[in-house]
Design brief:
The protein is α+β, with helices and mostly antiparallel strands. Helix content is 47%, strand content 9%. The structure holds glutamic acid. The site of glutamic acid has 11 residues, from loops.
């Protein structure tokens, strides 16, 4: 059996067009996230997919250039920003390393669950559930204001995507700021346990705004390539993360990136992934490409229903699962 490799562009285009055609005809499209009012109005009838090879131009199908709210996918970039810029000296000042304040285990609970946090004394299971990302946001605020930190995460996305146009969607951020009581509860609980340093509203202002960055499938796939390329930005060869850190981020994506369905996603697709309630899923194909699929309708666990199906189809056609091709 040959090992997986990048498929020739024409063949990949046929695969993506075929996936887009098939999902277009599906009647069960999931449900848009209702708890963020601004997302509740997004048109369900949209689907896009883009593959960004580490050494070639992106290939896409469907609504691959439509902007959507990246939501929890931003947690990959905020973690990258924290790992990249917060050095050993700062950790000493903070008094604990990132990994003493956030775990590295799947939670098995919903992304906004409060119960586990109480049992575990305010230490979130991993950086990809909401409380974990809120701690990462707090770490970023050790040496900058929340406005500066939003710009840093945004600029990281812009640099990685080679596209300076992306912005925070202010309407979505305001919507979350108004209605984010559950995230406030998580943050206040961690503050009470001594695991947040900055004022809760400053941390949440960063967290809600990073979640509200709007990107397209194509931008997000290009931005994710460093994780497929051992931490190097394929655009210019610069180091975004060390190879070891990039490997760790992708390991976390595999184990914790799809809410309490991370095991199911690994079972069905077999790629490190991070999903968001905006309906996007970013997957990493190590050594080959980053891929984003998007459709706003979610399944019961909060993962995009059609994007999940699209990834199952993609790995079947490309044999890109890290666990080996399906027969
Ligand atoms: N901003 C969303 C929240 O905090 C992110 C959720 C997600 O995409 O998982 O609830």
């Amino acid at each position: 059996m040959p090992s997986p490799s990048l498929i020739e562009t024409g063949e990949l285009q046929v695969i993506l067009d075929d996936i887009a055609d098939r999902v277009a005809g599906m009647s069960d499209r999931g449900k848009v996230a209702q708890y963020i009012p601004e997302l509740a109005g997004v048109d369900l009838n949209q689907f896009g997919i883009a593959v960004a090879p580490i050494d070639g131009a992106p290939v896409s199908a469907g609504n691959a250039d439509t902007l959507f709210s990246i939501q929890s996918i931003s947690k990959v970039f905020s973690l990258t920003e924290a790992l990249q810029h917060v050095g050993a000296t700062l950790w000493q000042r903070v008094g604990a390393t990132l990994w003493q304040r956030v775990g590295r285990e799947p939670s098995g609970d919903p992304f906004n669950s409060i119960v586990q946090l109480e049992h575990e004394r305010g230490i979130p299971r991993n950086p990809f559930i909401n409380p974990g990302a809120i701690v990462v946001a707090d770490v970023l605020l050790e040496d900058r204001s929340s406005d500066e930190a939003v710009n840093d995460v945004l600029n990281l996305c812009r640099t990685l995507a080679e596209d300076a146009s992306m912005q925070v969607d202010k309407a979505v951020a305001d919507s979350e700021m108004r209605t984010g009581s559950r995230n406030r509860a998580l943050a206040h609980f961690m503050k009470a346990e001594g695991n947040l340093k900055a004022p809760v509203e400053d941390v949440l202002s960063l967290y809600f705004r990073q979640c509200s960055i709007a990107m397209s499938c194509r931008q997000l796939a290009v931005a994710g390539r460093y994780l497929a390329a051992a931490g190097q930005n394929p655009a210019d060869g610069s180091t975004v993360l060390s190879a070891q850190r990039a490997r760790r981020v992708t390991a976390l994506m595999m184990m914790c990136g799809s809410y309490d369905a991370s095991g199911e996603f690994a079972f069905r697709v077999g790629l490190p992934a991070k999903s968001g309630v905006g309906g996007g899923i970013l997957c990493i194909v190590p050594g080959i490409a980053a891929v984003t699929a998007w459709s706003p309708g979610l399944d019961a666990k909060g993962n995009s229903h059609l994007a999940s199906i699209a990834f199952q189809e993609l790995v079947r056609a490309t044999r890109w699962s890290v666990f080996g091709p399906s027969v």
